[in-house]
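Q: Convert this sequence to structure tokens.
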Amino acid sequence: MKKTIFTILLTFISVEMLAQQVMLADSITKNPVCYATVYDANGTVIGRSDMGGYIKLQKGFEYNISHIGYEPRNIICNNDSIIFLSPSSYKLSEVNITARKKKYYHCKVFFRSIEHVDSCLKYYIDGIREFYIDTKSKKVHCGNIEMYYFMSKRKDIAQKKRSMMISDRYMALPFLDKNTLYEETMRDKKRNIESGIVYADSISIGSCKVRSDNSEMLLSIDALWPKNSLVTNLFGYTQVLSKYNKTELYRYNDFDAPSVFNLKSSNSYRHLTLTHKKENLVRDIDVEDVFYVVEYEYTDTKESSSPELLQEDYEKYSVLFPLTERIAEQLVREE
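A:
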């Protein structure tokens, strides 16, 4: 028994010795990149970079780094203390700003949502959805949608029907809110932005960066602070939301105060633990939702795109925003 415990401890210590703290940074400004998602070689989320851009990685292991404001990058962790990420390069068509006098802002969004349960891919969804937003009231109207949906049939990560209804299915279709993360932050009396740092009750909870060419602004925050965790109890299940980070990228050179009309992309990451007080059930759930505004225009009419056109858009933008290789392999293997 003592020998077994010693072996476990030795293994744990060896793994810890291989781990090193690495900083993720912007390749141009050299500033830290916070809340970047890091996947392991199996496509499972292992964590997010913190406010200083730091995350612990294991030497010799392969990782994929993803962030809505930067190009994805595959690495094998070595002795580098800094890993540089290149700003994203996808462009939106230019639109005359005076066109905002028209009745609607019409945009198309390419979205993707991925859920892992106990490090196993359980749900996956992506697609194209269009929205019409009233330029005066900012009321959001949903248009047509084209999407692909996957649900794992693995019994080892399956849960009881009632559990799935209340707790396990966190994937959501994209839905543009009336106000952006930036607007919510500026309206929250507990929050303020000073010198590129977002504060809540004088504690730093995120960053707000304007790109060097003033073309984009990137806002990332810890959406849970200052509560630190959110606990709910339903039908004997205890659900603890312990991580919730949100990031939005805006076109910045149009206006000084970005609104939903300037939104370019959005990302959220949540980590939950699900337990049951009587059953032998503990589930770690990781969910990441991301969407990119791929087309937009101002118009006076609401004419939804045809299913055929949305299918063409889906095929086009699926190539522009490819999956990580490992998650693509998981989908093929599961199907």
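The first strand starts at residue 19 and ends at 26.
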